[in-house]
Amino acid sequence: MNEKQLKIQNEIDKLKQVDFSSLEQSHGFMADGIVGGFKSAIHKMHYTFVKQILLGILSGIIIGFGYVACLIAMLGLPEHWAGFGNVMLGIFFPGCIILITFLGGGLYTSHVVATIPMFKKTVYVSDYLKGIFGVMLGNFAGTLIFVMIFAMAGGLDMKINDIGIFEKAYDMGLHKLYRFESSKTFSAVVLSVLAALTSGILCNIMVSATLPLTSSSKHPVGALFVIIFPITFFAMSGYQHGPANTFFFWSMIVSNIFPPEMGENSILHNEPQILDVVYFFFINLIPTFIGNWIGGAIFLPGLLHLINKEYTDVFFKKARLEFLEEKMTRITTKLNNKANKSTKTSK
Fold first, then answer.
1. Residue span of the structural domain in which 311 resides
2. In the list 7, 63, 165, 196, which could disulfide-bond 287, CB 3.0-4.6 Å?
3. pLDDT exceeds 60 at position 347
4. What is the CATH number of the domain that holds 191?
5. Main site of residence (predicted)?
6. Cα 2 vs. chain centroid, distance in angstroms?
7. What SS3 class is residue 159?
8. Structure letter (DSSP) for residue 259
């Protein structure tokens, strides 16, 4: 046993002396939820990079379906009910998260819950980065796939009350630029980036809550019911969700390739411009993803961890023990294979 193995074994021996019996008991919805949420987040980091991308693609496609349904519902409202647009988002968008939860898709916004477990050394840093960036790439790819297929399936010509679906998506994308939409000044850039960042934080405080919430209930119907509320709150409030906003990103690109007809009832003031897409990427998407990370990686999980520290600390010790045992097995297997190879070579 080399020095590295000896060090790992010593830590394993110490951790084996810890009493983990408290984890076998129920401590209420909050404690059980955050422990289960961390456990689920750690499990997600074990997937291969390809699987992370595929899970992200699945979720991105579901988001596309959800947003088209939301846009149709919003455009179908009478003119004097226009203020109910966000209510439509609050009603329909939770369906996306429910489908993703029960189908097993992956969202960047929930994957980042693995951040604290990574800091607690229960997940390889490489696995963590592979997980969150793999699923992020998949989310981008998923919404792209949906937007392309939807456009070819007649989405480019689909209109509700004489307003096109892509036209409405473009308009919503522009509104997500905040002050920069109407004022192209440096102060507008700063304020708009800050708005997207902080809105992203608020969004993922709610969205990341779905992981501990689904873990707090052993009954699938109960889990389905409770996750509706945080998604409804964020969707109705208009907070920025990075993976969901990629739908608008690709829709704006498609609208630049196939510009919508600017009729009398058009809600766009100007023809689509490729610069709008660039602005959206840098002023909305990047700050939103960073904000989502802060809200879902640090803020909510960190708060719940501190509140339930007596249970989460025990959980992290157990998770660390399992991590080290797996690591020791890997090292031993690698050394044995190396030794066998050397033996064969010498013969």
1. 27-324
2. 196
3. no
4. 1.20.1080.10
5. membrane
6. 41
7. strand
8. P
Query: DSSP class of residue 217?
Result: -
Cα radius of gyration (the chain): 23
Q: Please report which residue ranges of the chain form alpha helices under DSSP H.
A: 3-15, 29-44, 49-75, 85-92, 94-103, 108-111, 115-119, 125-150, 165-175, 186-207, 210-216, 220-237, 242-257, 274-279, 286-293, 300-307, 309-346
Q: Is residue 179 part of a domain?
A: yes
Express each pLDDT in 35-62 by its tens digit.
999 999 999 999 999 999 999 999 999 9
Burial zone of 124 (CB within 10 Å; 0-12 exposed, 13-18 middle, 19+ buried): middle
| H or E segment to which residue 156 belongs | none
- Residue among 117, 102, 111, 116 nearest 139 (CA): 111
Checking phi first, is residue 41 left (phi over 0); if not, alpha (psi -120 to 50) or beta? alpha
Q: Dig out the tokens for 201 from the structure.
A: 């934080």
- Note the pLDDT tens digit of each residue in 292-337: 999 999 999 999 999 999 999 999 999 999 999 999 888 888 877 7
Q: Phi, psi at residue 224, to the nearest 5°?
A: -60, -40
Mean pLDDT of 22-28: 83
Phi/psi region, residue 160 (left: phi>0; alpha: psi -120 to 50; beta: rest), is beta
Query: Highest mean pLDDT range out of 23-32, 92-101, 147-156?
Result: 147-156
The model's pTM = 0.90
Contact present, 173 and 275 (Cβ < 8 Å): no
Q: Is residue 18 part of a domain?
A: no
In a domain, 288, yes or no: yes
If one counts the domains in the chain, the total is 1
CA dihedral 61, 62, 63, 64 (to 10 degrees): 50
Question: Is residue 29's pLDDT more than 90?
Answer: no
Quote the DSSP letter at residue 161: T
